[in-house]
Prior knowledge:
Oligomer: single chain
CATH superfamily of the largest domain: Histidine kinase-like ATPase, C-terminal domain
Distance between the termini: 99 Å
Amino acid sequence: MGPDGILHIPPVGGPIKLLVTKVYGYLLASFAAGIFLSEILRTDGIRRRQTFYLFMILAALVASTLVKIFGLVPEYFDPTSAAFSLSGLLFTYSIEKHGLLKFISVGRDQAFEEIKDIVLIVDSAGVIVEVNQSGLAFFGVEVLGSTFDSVIPKLSTAENGEPIPKIKLQGQTDERYFRYQKSTVRYGRKLEGTIVVLNDVTQLQQRQDELYLLKEVLTRIFRHNMGNALTVIHGNATHIQAESTAFADQTSAIINRVEELQKQAEKAQQFEKIFEYQNPVNRSLREVIDAAVSHYTGQSGVAIRTAIDDVRVEVHPDFVTALRELIENAIIHDVTAGTTEISLSTDITDTQVTLRISDTGPGIPENETLILRSREENNLDHSTGIGLWLVKQILTRMDCSLAIEADSTGTRIDISLPRSHEKE
Length: 424
């Protein structure tokens, strides 16, 4: 305190001045430069260029003071003003060209808000810290600050122990189904959290429930009602045929038609099993072919020859059913008086096996081969339509390709199967 009553602080000089004004300042600048370099290495594209501009601005300012401190410029010249001018130009260019880190952030924020899926951001403590507009509309604003476990129930697991990525949640007004996806967020400096995306699959779930109900109804009709009715009709027609010859032609027509319908009903019943997901199985192709052709052994008017390599393939569990349907199709469409000749052969490589099914009949009609060729469903307006559609459903559930050639000399179907080098 001076005689005038004013507190005087002595000027700081020497090493203290150097420590405060130089060392501390450059430590801060070095720390900032390190952050910018880390961002440049971590990012790419426009964000990297924007960060590089900021780094250059900082570097220009630091360099201007260093050259002055180390006496690299005359005493009368201060490069600081030039450095600030250059920095201003770089700053202006960055704003004009790229928005200086603003445009990307604004775009991402807008995308976050407008996305239809519900997006939740959860911090490392398990608290929901951010949610987009879709999430606020479904959960309400009280979801912010809530613990994640109190909002999202624990995922149920399948028989194999894997979590089922579909959950049912109660919102403000209704209950909906969501597909659940989760990813971890890491941004260095121990910043860590979780992003959870909930994709609304309520309509898909309702559609699946409706299809399941339709499948149950149809299979029960074919399995019980229609099957029992056809059995009664067949029995009565057979009884009439045995008791009287007055209506022999009519009863024979009834019996033949009923037997055809019974076959179609049996095929329709197989849809229930095929529609269920089944993993491919490792089988000997020769054993599969033997099982398929054994059904026709000894059948008059049919000659089947096989030349099958002893290889293993990955096939659908009902692949034998598909092969029988293709053989049956060749027999049905051969209206010639002679014997239907069918051959099955293979052509193998290291990775796949091509199974070739050929016949000498007049060829499958084009409108029926479309059932196998087309990617769209076709009207099942033929008696063999259900069988071919059954074949298509089995083959589309396998990792295979199909090629068909049909003309007046017969039909050739090539099925390419993935070869397996594993033993059963």
